[in-house]
Amino acid sequence: MKTQVSGWAVVQEEPSGCGIAACANLAQICYAEAKQLANSLGIFAEDKTLWSETCHVRQLLSALHISVSDKQTTFVSWDRLPDRALIALKWHREQGKPFWHWAVFMRDGDNAVVIDSARRLKSPIRTDFGRMKPKWFIEVK
Known about the structure:
Elements: H1 18-27, H2 31-40, H3 55-63, E1 73-74, E2 84-94, E3 97-108, E4 111-115, E5 125-126, E6 136-139
Antiparallel strand pairs: 1-6, 2-3, 2-6, 3-4, 4-5
Helix pairs in contact: 1-2, 1-3
């Protein structure tokens, strides 16, 4: 599958900044700008609820004027995802509480990519769909 993306891909600048980076990727702004807005809203990358609850990411997206679905939908297949979605990767439990890594799925026609802000990756633009195992997604409207 050939992929095309605008060339915009934000990488998280903090080990726990995936939620802020996902919002920056959707808004096509730099990480520093998204972080500054998040901090002004009382949202900080160091807060574990940023990757164990959806409310902070939803609040930041709202401030960026990006509308998302009110619900989380169980992931079934890549083909059944909407054209833009926040996806929960690396979902796991710690002391009974769910945690995940935020990433962004984008489709343009037949071309699809995941923008994964993890610094450890060679490229934030991923097409290795068989290796990623999303638990659920939130549609970006």
